[in-house]
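Lecture 7 notes: from sequence to structure.

We start with a single chain of 449 residues. Read the sequence below before looking at the structure.
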Amino acid sequence: MPNKVALHTIGCKLNFSETSTIGNQFLSNGYEVVDFWKSIESPAEKADVYIFNTCSVTENAEKECRQLVRRVLRKNPDAFVAVTGCYAQLRPEEISKIDGVDVVLGSKEKLKLFSLIDSFQKNELACIYVSPTQQLNEFGAAHSTDADSRTRAYFKIQDGCDYKCSFCTIPLARGKSRSMNPEELIKEFTALVKKGYKEIILTGVNVGDYGKAFDTSLYQILLKIINVPGDFRIRISSIEPNLLSDEILELTAESEKMCKHFHIPLQSGSPEILKLMQRRYKASYYSELVFKLKERIPELGIGVDVITGFPGETEKYFLETYKFLRELPVSYLHVFTYSERPDTKAINMLNPIDVNERRKHTNMLRILSSKKKHAFYSESTGKELRVLFEAENADGMMRGFSSNYIRIETPFDYSLVNKFSDVVISEVNDDACFGEIKGTEKSIDLIAC
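Now the structure, written as tokens:
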């Protein structure tokens, strides 16, 4: 029997693309990739090697990593444990002190596992392979592979960030902005399409910053990849508001291959807090952008990142953000509770907000997000959505996404997997859409999460 490896990702879509590439390296070296959670819950499924790809955006992300590593080792003390990702890059000594961790790999080393480790056998002490931030200048290619069995592919095209937001550790963890060579990008993108992926999600730390070193841009590369032959669509994982150009908007409006969906970080609707955060736009600019997007593409789905409890965010400033978001025609919010991050400017700012107050504001915005999502789904009543259903069978149900990022569930039907299905929405009840898959005579309940 081949040795087994289980991989777990904490964090963003970029991390998922890199985890999949690591998993594929294990497949190429004769390992069997097993489900992480099953490997913990079932003794028969336990893995020989565990890989944790971590995040450091919040304190909770780091805490989750530590808890899961300890949980794995309680169940399987003989397993080889490797921890990589942003948390590993920033605080390798802290991770190495967790009993049972065998190796800590930094951002530069995470995709070089098999060249650094001769034998995946337990060590008495953890080995640390972490290069200084100044040396994070290589671009490590990564994308979804057979190791994670997804129908939608995450495709890393950019890494690092040149922005200096006062709350963020990512430039320290991933280095300066850098991009995939355009020729290599088109080659890899074409290979993903030929492999059968119907949706390819372009990921990076700051995707909109793509291409500077190659005298090109995200818009220019989008123009090229939409002309790759095949039945597929492209989704941009996230894009900064100051980098979402009119050219990208027009291309999205005109091309069927571009998903009608943007995820646009805001972080705060208060001009004073945005300034403290050192963001590169004003709240008024963000508002004008969102209304312009919706005017050009009325069905557009728009997601927003927002942080609550930033130092100095009084009740007045929080309510500015709340009212700002309430009036915007956006589809959903990703709400993060601010947590102090070492080596950031914000950690030394005056007027920290009480943790209970931060959580209260987070809950208020999450309730607003639910209302926004329901209103957005309701706009689809009577309309036809093109849905790509995924392969996972979750208790007899399958899930899919529309182009404008409405998530849909339906009773599992293998014939729908990895195919575009046209669905007519007839009714919305709470978070549920009821409709009919075109080409079938019977009505099917479609539950949108």
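The chain is about 35% helix and 20% strand. Keep this in mind for problem set 3.
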